[in-house]
Amino acid sequence: MFTRNSLLGLLLCLAATLCGCRNQSKTIPPKEPAAVRVATVTRAETSAERLRYSASILPYAEVDLAFRSSGYVTNVAQVRGADGRQRDIGPGDYADQGLTLAHIRRQDVQNEVAQARAQLDQAVAQHTRADQDFQRAQALYATQSLTKPDYDESQEAFRKSQAAIENAQAALRQAELTLVDADLKAPFSGYILSRKIDIGSLVSPSTVAFTIADISRVKVTFGIPDYVLPKVHFGQEIKIEPETGTAPLVGRVTSIPTAADTRDRTFSIEVSVNNSDRQLKPGMIASVNLGEAPHSFISIPLSAVVPSAAEPEAFAVMVVEEHKGALVAKSRMIQVLAVYDNSVSVEGVQPGERVVSGGSQLLKDGDLVKVIP
Question: Are 187 and 236 in contact (CB under 8 A)?
Fold first, then answer.
């Protein structure tokens, strides 16, 4: 016998079952292809392009200087400041090759030298005794007054004493070299770019004390695309025009990379320029003019470019492909190289392919499409 509650539950279950049957009986109509406009990928050619590039000025050589051993800085080279007073050498100051820029407390290193000399004296004394013992052993062994094991033992002690002298001599030379390196000297003539120590600073071999740069010659670097690469060759003279408005300089191409930068697809060219008058400073900007050249590129309409669904900061296009008699839009990532009015130069598609130029913003990868005029 059904109670009121059980009957109500049965009715609810029956209603749910009937509703499910009605839902299953409904058919989902197929999605209609989206109407889109398409454009064919072409290869276009610009008129003669002016090949003018911005270049950076870098020092010919730049070195971080550090002490060979740990210690306290007791002296920093002095120069005369603009006010006429002596001050510690620092950024912007010129240092001649061999100038002692700073040195650490010598007493610490001198103690190491003294210890190494004492060890050498001890090794020499031990060698002298071992030599005397070995000479006696040779004489006794010649008269068969000494056994072969005792003779071999004496000979081994003599050889060890020789090795001990050689080790002690090497340790002394190393200590003396460390004493010499207590003075931190400029390896070449140049400008101090930074100083990170003061008198009293505790330094270690990993501590960069100074950064010095040689700007008697400078390197001028700039990036060019692949189609300009044939216009550049080793030893080529190139005019450098500083942005400061000073007279142009002439340099020669000294480096051409074999591979492009993966970030911007350019080749970084290096030009060496004589800068004996120090007219160019590291960090300056200059202009380089390589003349003019025509340029062909793969072109698509600007309206075909959409944000990539996979990478928000990248771009994509919807390429129209035929699949089982139907037209399907396939998303493909591209790299935008340049913009020309209503078209763009890209990488990632090939001439002859068709891309959606109208309506691509409403499409998803794999959607059916139909082409309209």
Answer: no
